Structure formats: C-alpha cells, structure tokens
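INFO batch 0412 | record 1 of 1 | parsing
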Amino acid sequence: MKQIADIATNEVKEKKKAGIKYCENATQYNLENNKKEWKYIIIPASEIKFSRNIKEYETLFLAKF
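INFO prediction complete | emitting tokens
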C-alpha cells in the first residue's frame, strides 16, 4: 500500500514532529483557557471514510504512525 509507505518518508516524519509540537503548544494554551486538548493524527488517505468519526480515527491511528 503505497500511501502508508509514504508516511515513513523523512519529509512526513519532520512534518509529524512539527505537528506534534504545534498540538502540544495549542493544548497548553487551551487548557490554561478552559478549552480542549489538540491531538496530531496521521490518517492515510485510503482510510478516510465518511462513516467514521474523529474518535474512531483516534482509536485506529493516534499512536500507529
């Protein structure tokens, strides 16, 4: 499955690091202001389904990639 293989590229790994850092900073600010936490999730395009909600994506992919 090429799309999942693309997730392992250095470019995607660097974007992931930046995305995680952004989410950490946004979460810190939001929690200080009584708002919700942010999470960074990589979802392969082939796995996007209209019938899924964000909790399902979180369960399936939050720590996978």
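INFO post-check: The radius of gyration is 13 Å.
INFO record closed
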